[in-house]
Amino acid sequence: LEEVTNDPSHRGLFKVPTLRNIALTGPYMHDGRFATLEEVLDHYNDGIEPSRTLSPLIAEASNLDAPAGKAISLHLSEPEKAAIIAFLHALTDAEFVSDPRFSDPFVAAAGDG
User: Fold this and answer.
1) How many beta carbons lie within 10 A of that of residue 40, not counting itself?
2) Non-local CB neighbours of 20 within 8 Å, separated by 6+ positions
3) Which of 10, 30, 56, 107 could disulfide-pair with 1, CB 3.0 to 4.6 Å?
């Protein structure tokens, strides 16, 4: 957003994409560094590094009171992580993604001579 507004306080801000069909939209993150949703969740659970552009919503998202100076973490258990991944997969709309009305308009539909 900073590039559009020229406001330094907007550095690192972006529009959050929808979670609809998230299981089908990898690779993940702004730079495509994660191939799976599990890798993304592991990153947010264990790999967050403090920075000046880190959202306070992430920095304060811990499930537990962590001692000062400790790594930022959600402190999710394996069953909690599995439940979140299952929820994200539940947001996949197979009917929508296979509907020919939303297919590539540059590829002829079957039966179009």
Assistant:
1) 20
2) 91, 93
3) 10
Query: Quick check: pTM over 0.70?
Result: no
Say if residues 37 and 28 touch (Cβ distance below 8 Å). yes
**How far is residue 88's CA from residue 44's CA, in Å, rounded to a whole number?**
15
Tokens 């999710």 locate to 76
DSSP state for residue 72 in the 8-state scheme: B
Which pair of structure tokens corresponds to residue 53?
């552009």
